């Protein structure tokens, strides 16, 4: 397992309430906002982190479609997996279950989400606003949680 992981929500993180659809992009990638994608790409370039999708989209799209959607939207992140469906209203428990299932858990990780609180992951959550998604405003917090 790569040493740094981003547990990533999609709605409210990789898009926002003002995101226009992009019909030329296939699948879920049409819903990604280029500004939010650019911030994720900046994080990935700076840290080498990989993505584990924690969004509820993981329940309706297979991993290969999620990967294709991220790529079609211009995301440079390697999508390595999804969290298990353990307890929908408690996304932190699903992330904790994924971490506990790893033979070598990541040395650094962050959960980026707009909706859920995650008491199971103290110090690892960065919340976004559904009005803006992932922006430069959250960048220092995310980079600090993934720093060596």
Automatic annotation (TrEMBL):
Highest rank taxon of the organism: Bacteria
Official protein name in the record: HAD domain-containing protein
